[in-house]
Amino acid sequence: MSYPKTTLFLTTYNWPEALTLCIRSIAAQTVLPNEVIIADDGSRNETTVLINQLKNECSFPIVHVWQEDDGYRINAIRNKAILAANNPYIIQIDGDIVLDAHFIEDHLRFAQEGRLVIGRRVNISKERTEAMCKTNTFTPITSFRNKIVAILHHTILYNATNIKGVRGCNMAYWRKDAFATNGYDEEMTGKGPDDKEFAVRLINSGVKAYNLKFYAIANHLHHGDEDLRANYKKNQTLFANTISTTKIKCTKGLTQNV
Q1: Nearest Cα residue to 188 out of 201, 179, 207
Q2: Cβ count near 251 (within 10 Å)
Q3: Going along the chain, which residue ranges are E strands?
């Protein structure tokens, strides 16, 4: 099949063991991305050293995009990754994700103009996560791939008032559609529905959002959650406003970085 040229970007922050597993799972894909961008929200130098090592392991180019550590600013580093992307199609994950071997191939099979693809994640146990991180060894994970059920679910569209299951660790969209909405809203800092807010604006702009169950499985490494919800109420208000006003473009997004 003919697939669009693809940038896969992932977000990371001070967890080199997880990043190693993530990159090695990308290298084991049945279809490789044209480039990988590591969107780094202020990690220490050991992550930079690791990335330079991983570049030598991988056959695809790796670009390291870094910003100063000034709190949880995932939307800002996501926008920097979108700006740095050299390809028209973007697959977005997190650096604590270990990909099923068919992950990229699955996403590209369902890539169509004007479409946002929303995938799922499966949680890896604490014990297995610790074992994998201790050895820095990627063990291929085989997912259950029920294609009949997947196709049925695939035909179900989300809308802006019923946007379920969106996770920034498993989604794909066209770079031009991200620019049409001005990317992620950097007014949203800390934990909050930032990925859902972005998805709603894409839908408001005319993009169709598809639920992709049983394909493109993202395996999530176990970790404790820091208390990053100081701005959660504000973020929820911004999200609700995007829904009620059918807003398409955010004010503080991609364009301020151009």
Answers
A1: 201
A2: 11
A3: 6-12, 35-40, 62-66, 89-94, 97-99, 115-118, 121-123, 157-158, 170-174, 208-211, 218-220
Q: How confident is the model at residue 215 (pLDDT cuts 50, 70, 90)?
A: confident
How many Cβ atoms are within 10 Å of 252's Cβ, its own excluded? Answer: 17
Alpha carbon distance 109, 192 (integer Å):
30
> Domain extents for the chain?
6-257
Question: Beta-carbon neighbour count of residue 71 at 10 Å?
Answer: 11
Instruction: Give 157's pLDDT tier (boundaries 50, 70, 90).
Output: low
- Do the Cβ atoms of 193 and 235 come closer than 8 Å? yes
DSSP 155: T
Written as six digits, the tokens of 235 are: 């973020």
Q: Residues near 54 by Cβ (< 8 Å), separated by ≥ 6?
A: 19, 20, 23, 62
**Residue 250 CA: distances (Å) to CA of 202, 224, 247:** 11, 31, 8
- What pTM does this model have? 0.92
> How many residues make up the chain in this entry?
258
What spatial distance separates the first Cα and last Cα of the chain, rounded to whole Å?
Answer: 35
CATH topology of domain 6-257: Spore Coat Polysaccharide Biosynthesis Protein SpsA; Chain A (3.90.550)
